[in-house]
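User: Show me a protein chain along with its predicted structure.
Assistant: Here is one chain, sequence first, then C-alpha cells.
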Amino acid sequence: MKIVDALARHGGLDQTLPLQAGLIMYFSDFFHSLPLAAIYIFSVLLVLGALALGILLGRRHLAHSGDDKGSSVGSAVAATLALLAFLLAFTFNMTADRFNQRKALLLNEVNAIQTTYLNARFLDSADTRRARTLLLEYVDLRDLDLRTDEITDEDLARSRVLHGELWRLVDRAIDGGHEPGYLRQFVEPLNTVINFDNSRNVVGLQYRIPGPIWLALYFMTALAMLAIGFQFGISRGGSPQVAVALALTFATVILLIADLDRTTEGFLLVDQKPMSELNRLLREAERGAASQ
C-alpha cells in the first residue's frame, strides 16, 4: 500500500496505467486489423520456425552431452501442450460465445423493429406514417451484406439521428395528451430497438480478443513447438511431413479463432437474412398501404 500511495502522489499511477491501457489497445487493434491470410501464414511460419529451432537445439544438445533425457522432456512437452490446449479452448469459447451473441442480438433487433413498426398505429395517423417512414430508413441502414458493404461512421451516426427523431414523435404525443396506455405500446418496443442497436454495435464492433491474449497464445504456441522440436532432436525423430501437419493444424485453429472474432470479414459471418427479409416485408406492407 505504501508503494501504491507513493506512486499516486508522484503521478506514477497516472502515467503507468494509461500507458498499459494504450499498449493493450494497440495490440488489440493490431491483431484485429491484420488480414486473416496474414495471420494464417504467420502462424504456419511461427510453428515451422519454432519446430526447426527446437530440432536444432535438441540435436546440438545430443551431440554435446549424448544424453537424450527422453522421459523428462516428454513430460515437459505434455505439460506445455496441455496448457496450450487450455488457452486455445478458452479463446475459442470466448469468440464462439460472442459469435452466438451477435446472432441472437440480430434476431432480437429484427423482432423489436417489426413490433415497433406494427405498434406505430397507436400514434396519431400522421405520426404513424412518419414513424414507419423512419423505421423503413432505419432497416435500410441495418440491412447490410457484410461481405461487400462497409459499416461506416456516417451510417452509425444516422442511426442515432433516427432514434432521436422517433423519440421526438413520442415527446409530441406526450405533449398532445396522448393516452399513456396506448403510447406505451409504441414506446416499449422503440426503447428495445435502441437498446439492441447499442448492444449490436458494442458486441460486433468493439468487443474483440484482447491483445495480451493474442500475445500469450502465440507465445505458448511457439514454446510448445520449440519443446516438441527439441524432443524430436534428441530422439532423432520427426519428419518434414509431421512438422507441416503440426503447422497447418495449429494455424487452422488460430485462423478459426481470428475469423470468429471478426464481424465484417472472413468466412464465418452472421447471416443477415432476417434483416433483409424484414426489409422486404415492411416495404411490401408500405406498398399495400399506399395502394389502398
